[in-house]
Amino acid sequence: MAKVTIDGISVEVPDGTTILQAARMIGGDIVPPTMCYHSKLKTSGGYCRTCIVKVTKGSEKDPRPMPKPVASCRTTVMDGMEVQNLTSPDLLEARAGVVEFLLINHPLDCPVCDQAGECDLQNLAYENGKAGTRYEFPRREFERIDIGDKIQLHMNRCILCYRCVKTADQVTDGRVHGVINRGDVAEISTYITNAIDNDFSGNMIDVCPVGALTDKTFRFKSRVWYTKPMDAHCKCTKCSGKVRLWYKGEEVLRVTGRRDQFGEVTDWICNECRFEKKKTSDWTIEGPAHIDRDSVISANHYESLKALKADIDRQRKALPHGDKVTLGHGALDPNNQ
Amino acid sequence: MGRKLLLENDHIEGIRKLDVYRKHGGYSSLEKALKTMTPEQVVEEVKASGLRGRGGAGFPTGMKWSFIAKPAGVPRYVVCNADESEPGTFKDRYLMERIPHLLIEGMIASSFALGARTSFIYIRGEYFYVARILEQAIAEAYEAGLLGKNIMNSGFDHDCYVQVGAGAYICGEETALIESLEGKRGNPRIKPPFPAVAGLYGCPTVVNNVETIAAVVPIIKDGGAAYASIGVGKSTGTKLISASGHINKPGVYEIELGVPVEEFIYSEQYCGGIRNGKKLKAVVAGGSSVPILPADLILKTAAGESRLMTYESLADGGFASGTMLGSGGFIVMDEDTSIVKNLWNFTRFYHHESCGQCSPCREGTGWMEKILHKILDGNGTLADVDLLWDIQSKIEGKTICPLGDAASWPVASAIRHFRSEFEEYVRNGKSIKDVKHYFRLHQVAEA
User: Fold this and answer.
1) CA triplet A85, A86, A88: central angle to 5 degrees?
2) In this structure, which topology does domain A2-102 adopt according to CATH?
3) Which one of A98, A120, A140 would you mutate to disrupt binding with B, by most B Cβ within 10 Å of its Cβ?
4) Percent of the residues in chain A that have a pLDDT greater than 70, as a whole number
5) Which residue from B379, B409, B377, B378 is spatially nearest to B393, judged by alpha carbons?
6) Is A66's Cβ below 8 Å from some Cβ in B?
7) What stretches in chain B show pLDDT beneath 50?
């Protein structure tokens, strides 16, 4: 066991635990945000640099601080380690820098993006980013490509988290896609014009933290905050059959894997469950799913409007002349975008 | 002064061939190691020599070697990093081209010391002709029984292979090199684990620069203490310096560490002074990634002491007034050089070579290049200079590998020491812009 202190809160964790996992055991605000790390995917993490933390004391044996911020998702704890996350203004500034880097070439086309409302990048920018941009050059652009008949890749939105590559490597057979080119023109692509076609390829959509990989059976059907998530299961021979159905009225608009409080998929599901079974009669309904993380969905369905109003007030105060901004009529009406 | 250990025989005709190399004492160090020393003794000699990694970081080689894990039944590998891609550095090419057997002898001796049955020389794609020279040399060595089974009847078996990369700067980073050697995309790995524990194919691996491995040969020959007697303090032995830029005699020089920088630039033995009698403006002392220093700070430290060509002396004053010895890519700039243009060129390089794995470097290097392009175009503002400073500070230290740092340091140092030049470009940008440069800028940007 090792004792680690994060932002002044101590926790005992088994040896080999990462700083991020230790922070998740503590929970709350001090958990660093993650974009590329996914606990179910081996060797994921370390790329996006949003989970960086400052290690002010290496361990009981070697108390020297680490010279640079470290990626908490890939750094294991040592006994007596002391870590700063929210308590270090330098670190928050560095993280805001990372968020800025992630956004300079992102199209910010949230109004037409299917991922909006359940997007990790949106959450990240909302929580750690700055209001304006300092980038004044054209953003990089790619053509949209269909990889198979069910998935569309919109590379403009990609942040190169490598999660889909690792999912394809570890969950499906015969990966046919990966990263080509390098630097800021690196892109996810298939081998020549191969289609991604195997039973578990749909999980790539679920692990994508942004709107780069989208479900073609759901594209432009509805904003996610108009749909109601329900947990359901079925007897499936290929996968666990534990899914989340997204209803609009009586209709199942899409089927996804279930995600935990950190936005990570808990059970991989097969493409048949995801793309073919879109009738309520295919499923045994367990009940409504509670979603913590994605502000828009939770605000509309589960949280009290009071909390939402407090949140808006907080943001408004942060804006210059924010006290003079008034909300239009019906702004808090759940049916108003 | 001026002893040579590596390039002692480089003027001899035919030294590239095995028989000539052996006639001049070649492979005697290997024989000494195999027949009279244990592997541990070789490691001890290297430790005693104080040899430091010649690739740029200057980490003590003996210490690196002693870190290698030795689990039973697991092979160990020695990898030579011949992916010399740092702009301004060309010493390894010269060494391999002239005396390939020196490297091969060093590879076998190092592998003996570390208990490696197999070693690899990873060479950059642009050096394809050097790879051929090395392969010929390896073939000669196999024929003479210096590679293969039971080398010199010592019972030590060793195979050495040359692997040509595809010309990516990032593959000079040791873990990216290992990935590339395994046949994967050359992305740096996240450390730990370090290669000494889990490197090539997950086995303990030592990755060393060409010059470092070559230096093992004279260390075995004369002993670590004799090597350590050359140089100043912790900077022992000799170092190859690739001198380029506005000097009378560009080229590769072997210096004893501790030569004053002033002597190196102005003496006839080395660079021979500034071309066309111009004045010295600035020096990039160790390859494009190290901080650039103006003339007064490169010749003398901030404390007024004469600066020497050693790891410590060049680093004196930290990054505020010092730099690094780095890989020994010594780029000299005369009074007519535009620091801003030069910086744009360096930044363009790092933008092009960023692997794209982690966000700050992938996005930040391109952003910095665009801003510099804008400033050179005469459209910059003073706020752009501050923005540039802010961007580099957000890349430095936030990335997986040192490429992010390497991209930030030149920007930071250029702004730190030559801010007035940036401001001049911002104020009078349009009029400074010379036509030749302007076309080049746009040609490259469009390509």
Assistant:
1) 75
2) Ubiquitin-like (UB roll) (3.10.20)
3) A98
4) 89
5) B409
6) no
7) none
